[in-house]
Amino acid sequence: MFQIGPYKLANSVVLAPMAGVSDLPFRRLCLEMGAGLTIGEMISSNPDLRNTRKTLLRSRHDGEAEPRSVQIAGNEPAEMAAAAQYNVARGAQIIDINMGCPAKKVCRKAAGSALLQNEPLVEYILKAVVDAVTVPVTLKIRTGASPEARNGVAIARIAEDAGISALAVHGRTRACAFKGEVEYDTIADIVNAVDLPVIANGDIKSPKQAASIIEYTGAAAVMIGRAAQGQPWICGQIATHLDSGVTPPAPNCDEQFAIIMRHINAVHAFYGDFMGVRITRKHFGWYMQHLNSDPGLRRAFNALQTCEEQLRAIEHYSQITESRTTNIEVLAA
Ligand SMILES: Cc1cc2nc3c(=O)[nH]c(=O)nc-3n(C[C@H](O)[C@H](O)[C@H](O)COP(=O)(O)O)c2cc1C
C-alpha cells in the first residue's frame, strides 16, 4: 500500500509534474484512466506572479480527485512557506517541492535542481515549508547536481529529518538534463538510506519496466512523465501490472479517438479558443505518434486555427486511421 501522510493511494503509479503537460484536463484524464496520484505543473512561489493567467490556471482543481498535489518552485524559505500556505488555502492537499527541474527559467534563480548543491538551503526550505502547513509535504529531486556531486542520499536524509512525507527521485543529475541513461543505483541507495516512501522516476516506458525498476530499487512507487504523453492510460496499465502481473491492452484505435475527443474538448473548455487550439496541437501530436505516423496529417492539423476545425479534423482522422489495438509492450520493446 502506497501512502502519503494520511492518504492511502489507489495504487503506486504517479503522474509526474510536467509544466505545459500535466494541466487539469490531463490530470483528470490520467486519474480517470488509473493513475494513483497526479501532481500539477509547478507554480512559482513568487507572490507577484499569483494573479497571472498562467498561475491561476495552474491553481485550478475543479472536479479533480483527491488528494490534490500542488508543486511549488522557488529558493527562498519564507516565500516557499507562504506559497505552501497560499496553495493549501486554494485546495492543495499535498504540497510537492520542486528540486528536480533543470529548466533554465527555474535554475537561473537557483531553484529547481540547482538547489541540490546547497544542502543547508535545502534544509531551510524543507523545514520552513513542513512547519508552515498541516498537509503532507513531498519533495522531488534528481540524484544530485552533477555526476561528480551525486548527493541524493544526503538530500534524502535531510528530507527525512525535515518531515518530508515522500520523495520522488529522477535518476539523472541536474547536469545531465534529459541526456544519457537514467541510473537507478542511486535511487536504490536512497531507498536503503531512509524510511520515507521513495518514488522512482526517469525513462519508465512500460509496465514490465516499471515492475523491474521497483524490484531493483525497492522503491514504493513509480512516477511516469513523458510516457504518458499521448498515452494517458499507461499509468493504469502499469498499476494493474504491478498488482497482478497482467498488463491490460491499451484502448483500441476507436477507443483512443474517443479519449482524444474527450481530452481535446476539455482542453478547449479549460483554456478557451486561443490557448486551447495551441495546447491541443501538442497533445494531438503525441497521440498521433502512436496512432498515425503520417507527418502530413500533423502538419495539416497544426495549421488549423479554431477549436471547431480541430474537432472536425479529429473526427475525420478517426475514420481514416486503421482500427487496431496498440500493444504497449510491443511499443516499448
Ligand atoms: C515537458 C516537461 C515539463 C516538466 N515540468 C516539470 C515540473 O514542472 N516540475 C518538475 O518537478 N519536473 C518537471 N519535469 C520533469 C518530470 O517531472 C520528470 O522528472 C522527467 O520528465 C523524467 O521522467 P520521464 O522520463 O518519465 O519523463 C518536466 C518534464 C517535461 C518533459
Explain this structure.
The protein has helices at residues 24-32, 53-58, 77-89, 104-107, 119-132, 152-162, 185-193, 207-217, 234-244, 253-291, 295-302, 307-320, 328-332; strands spanning 3-4, 7-8, 13-15, 37-38, 43-44, 69-73, 94-99, 137-142, 166-170, 198-201, 221-224. It is α/β, with parallel strands linked by helices and 333 residues long. Strand 3, helix 1 (24-32) and strand 4 (37-38) form a beta-alpha-beta unit. Helix 1 (24-32) crosses helix 10, helix 8 crosses helix 9 and helix 10 packs across helix 12 (307-320). The chain starts with a strand and ends with a helix. The relative contact order is 0.12. The structure holds flavin mononucleotide. Residues 16-21, 41-42, 71, 98, 100-101, 140, 170, 201-204, 224-227 line the site of flavin mononucleotide.
Q: What is the assembly state of the chains in this entry?
A: single chain
Spans with pLDDT under 50 lasting ≥5 residues?
324-333
Largest sheet: 9 strands, parallel
Strand content: 5-15%
Question: What percent of residues adopt helix (DSSP H or I)?
Answer: 40-55%
Shape: globular
Instruction: State the total count of DSSP E strands.
Output: 11
Structural class: alpha/beta
Element order, helices and strands? EEEHEEHEHEHHEHEHEHEHHHHH
CA radius of gyration: 20 Å
Strand order of the largest sheet: 4-3-11-10-9-8-7-6-5
Intertermini distance: 29 Å
Mean pLDDT: 92
Number of H/I helices? 13
The ligands found in this model are:
flavin mononucleotide
